[in-house]
Amino acid sequence: PPFQTSSSPEAPNMASKSGKGGRPELMQLLEELNIRTQVVEHPPVFTVEEMMPHVGHLAGAHGKNLFLRDKKKKGLWLVTTLAERAVNLGNLGKKLSAPGGLRFADESVMIETLNVAQGCCTPLALFNDKEGKVQFILDDEFINGGHEQVFFHPMVNEATLGMSPVDFLKFVEATGHKPTLTSFSDCQ
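RESULT FIELD:
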């Protein structure tokens, strides 16, 4: 069936290595929060372009995620924009007042902080950032764009998970993060 909620046997579970949560723990948390989800399993994808043929038919806002740090390595940002949006890191760095501008963070930092590897970055991994090191910047179109569902990877790049924008905010707040809703019209 096209919609499944079970974990793929091939899906990497980094939880055993790091002591942090993976896909099963995420799904358990969503259930505890009474958040209804729609999950579509698909082959592993590493870019938005690879993902869209598998999920582009799903009505809603699809996410693109950038895990960033400032030049001085003092701050971390998870930036989630609409999948089709181009983002100029220079303009975004100025908008966020990032010291020295923004750069992509090393994958090792992403694994340590969010427990996801490249290609799997997702705001759903914020439940692993117990220390609150990551500032979450969310494209305001996810919340104010009139979408019935918003879609992100559930800790692995072999699936896409959808939920209502209201439930997504409920999840983010349950992780202890407060999203900074941002217009990206001036960051392209």
